[in-house]
Design a protein that fits this description.
The complex is a heterodimer of chains A (338) and B (344). Chain A is of the alpha/beta class. Chain A contains eleven helices and eight strands. Chain A has a single domain, classed as Thiamin diphosphate (ThDP)-binding fold, Pyr/PP domains (Rossmann fold), CATH 3.40.50. Chain B is globular. The chains are: A alpha/beta (338), B alpha/beta (344).
């Protein structure tokens, strides 16, 4: 499997057939990994709260395939997608979930505190909105050094309920910082729908615009649309630093935290019918159809690609499951004040 | 040696730190005002300009996160709060993130060496929300250093050390110290974080103090020397990491301990040190330990109430003579003339 995400400096546009295929492969890598986590979670061996991103892959891949070495991505509790899309390895993610010392955070972070050595995916954090100013601070550093690098803050729609986002938008606008705020609007905060969390006449993009941050909406389930939007924003931002915000509509298939579907768990806040509507709008199926219809890949070719990715993830998963746990004596490693 | 005020010493440390490392910048509300945070950031602004010393909107939480993000990229931010009470707004970033960063990413995401200066207010009606001392809540959490310089030379040396430290460091500066004068060495030097300093050697009792209480302690020790009482004054300087060795050795020598902190006693630094001595030097104690801190109420605003609220050199003197069973010392230490003109 051609590992995409980081580094993808060669990935200038979607004009090439092989790039469109690489996007498909990245989506599949995430989907298969998340679904394998869901399947194995029931064994009670991954003792960490997982917030699965199944259904939201196009946002991560569309944004992260535009990254270059030196850029910095910050994410939130539902961060596996962003980790993998920006070059994180399946093994290091899954090993972290199994509490292995070979996990990306050596078994000290768990699902919600990821980081990747390539330093493009910098960190994910677990308190709502906490990582947004980190992206702004990275962008401040890039602007002070005039480096042309960009920072990305991924966050969900519920983060608009935290004060920190307004402080961050304001500062980024005042200092013209090269930071892209990516709002993944999946409509629900745990079980609370947007209707109880936002007044009817209020728009997220308008809030950003009122702070002086250019903002647009897009279809978060259309990976090519996301890619093109971000590609255009980044090329402007690298030349002329300033913040932008994109709000991408999408939908998480599984429960807020854990491996189940809400209807399986007996929750009624969203219906099975609603889920199935969104599943018809599966970002991966859409790209697969595109590759068959427009890029004349055969069904068989794509099936074989899928099979290869699945078997590779399967073996990374096994390797992570068998990876050693931290030594008990290492509990104080990296603690202390110096 | 040269005499500087505490504020001048801080100012000099920042300028030296910024010359030393081009990645150091200073931000916070009003850091580029002509008054420059009681004179401590003015020289830095004059020398380095607004690109490295810049004002911020009132946004304590996100600004702390921004400094953490910048430090993760290799910058060396200095964040200034005119009152350390404002840090409560930033506790998510400071406690939930900066203090844990190195540990919870397994050391793979580097370090976030932000330097946060917070000023402790006192008097002139500062009241309940502008006069607290946050050393104990911050130092409770592993992963973040807390220092409280009392002497001008240490204010300079600890800031220079903080700008070299791989960990986040909180520096708590007592506003009442800003005009205090002392000998300050020229040029670059570091005061090690995590080392207490014996300011006055004594043999009858150990008086372990933080921040402004060190000044009151020195007055009490000087006064008591006239009565033949030899007080050892230990200026704690660092709250975390704590210099257990210096404290324990002093108590082993004197057998008696009074601890004085600028904050409340319950769950505070004074209690921590009393507990430490009870655990590690119990058999050397000749008398019970006394903890001195603020009375158990929020800080009042009216002058008459402020006057009874704050412990003073006399409070320390009484605690010491009681511990020593000396009933003959009945004289009082004259209070310093209050010639301060407001606002604060």
């Amino acid at each position: 499997m051609q590992k995409i995400g980081f580094p993808v400096e060669t990935f200038k546009d979607l004009g090439q057939r092989k790039n469109r295929l690489a996007i498909f492969e990245s989506l599949l890598e995430i989907r298969f990994t998340e679904e394998m986590i869901a399947d194995n979670y029931k064994d009670q061996k991954m003792r960490t709260a997982v917030h699965l991103g199944t259904g939201q892959e196009a946002v991560a891949v569309g944004v992260c395939t535009n990254l270059m070495k030196g850029d910095a991505v910050f994410s939130h509790h539902r961060s596996h997608n962003h980790f993998l899309a920006s070059g994180g390895s399946v093994f290091e993610l899954v090993a972290e979930l199994y509490g292995s010392k070979n996990g990306c955070s050596k078994g000290r972070g768990g699902s919600v505190h990821l980081n990747h050595r390539n330093k493009v995916f910098f960190v994910s954090t677990a308190i709502l909105g906490q990582s947004i100013p980190l992206a702004v601070g990275s962008a401040l550093s890039f602007a002070m050094e005039k480096s042309g690098q960009v920072a990305v803050a991924f966050f969900g729609d519920a983060t608009w309920e935290e004060g920190v986002i307004y402080e961050s938008l304001n500062f980024a606008a005042i200092h013209s910082l090269p930071v892209l705020f990516v709002c993944e609007n999946n409509k629900y905060s745990t079980e609370s729908p947007l209707s109880v969390r936002r007044a009817e006449n209020s728009e997220f993009t308008q809030r950003a615009i009122s702070f002086g941050v250019d903002a647009i909406k897009g279809n978060g389930n259309d990976v090519y649309e996301v890619f093109n939007l971000v590609s255009e924003i980044f090329s402007k931002m690298r030349k002329n630093p300033k913040p932008y915000l994109i709000e991408l509509d999408t939908y998480r298939w599984r429960e807020h935290v854990g491996p189940n579907f809400d209807h399986e768990a007996g929750r009624t806040f969203r219906s099975k019918v609603e889920l199935e509507e969104w599943q018809k709008n599966d970002p991966i199926v859409a790209i697969k159809n595109y590759l068959i219809e427009k890029d004349s890949f055969s069904e068989t070719e794509l099936k074989s690609i899928e099979g290869n990715i699945l078997s590779e993830i399967n073996s990374e998963f096994k390797r992570a499951q068998n990876s050693p746990k931290p030594d008990k004596e290492s509990i104080f490693e990296n603690s202390g004040e110096f | 040696m040269r005499i500087l005020t505490y504020a001048q010493a801080i100012s000099e440390a920042l300028v030296i730190g910024m010359r030393e490392n081009p990645k150091v910048f200073i931000t916070g509300i009003g850091v580029d005002y002509p008054v420059g945070v009681f004179g401590t950031t003015r020289e830095a602004f004059d020398e380095f300009g607004r690109s490295r010393v810049f004002d911020s909107p009132s946004m304590e939480n996100a600004l702390t996160g921004i400094c953490i993000g910048a430090s993760a990229m290799g910058m060396r931010p200095v964040l200034v709060h005119h009152r350390n009470d404002f840090m409560f707004l930033a506790f998510d970033q400071m406690i939930n993130l900066a203090a844990k960063w190195r540990y919870m990413y397994g050391g793979n995401a580097g370090q976030v060496p932000v330097v946060v200066r917070g000023i402790i207010g006192r008097g002139w009606g500062q009241g309940a929300t502008h006069s607290q001392s946050l050393q104990s809540p911050i130092a409770h959490f592993p992963g973040i250093s807390v220092v409280m310089p009392a002497m001008p030379a240490d204010a300079k040396g600890l800031i220079i050390s903080a700008l070299k430290s791989p960990s986040p460091v909180v520096i708590l500066e007592h506003r009442t110290l800003f005009d205090i004068k002392g000998e300050v060495p020229e040029g670059y030097y570091e005061t090690p974080i995590g080392q207490a300093n014996i300011l006055r050697v004594g043999s009858d009792i150990s008086l372990v103090c933080t921040s402004y209480m060190v000044i009151e302690a020195m007055r009490a020790a000087e006064f008591l020397s006239k009565f033949g009482i030899s007080v050892e004054v230990v200026d704690l300087r660092s709250i975390r990491p704590l210099d257990e060795k210096t404290i324990i050795n002093s108590v082993i020598k004197t057998g008696r301990l009074v601890v004085a902190d600028t904050s409340w006693v319950q769950y505070g630094v004074a209690s921590e040190i009393a507990a430490l001595v009870a655990e590690k030097a119990f058999n050397y104690l000749k008398a019970p330990v006394t903890r001195i801190g603020l009375p158990d109420s929020p800080t009042p605003s009216a002058k008459v109430l402020e006057d009874v609220f704050y412990p003073s050199a006399n409070t320390l003197q009484q605690a010491i003579t009681k511990t020593l069973g000396r009933k003959d010392v009945i004289a009082q230490i004259s209070s310093e003339i209050d010639n301060f003109k407001g606002p604060y």
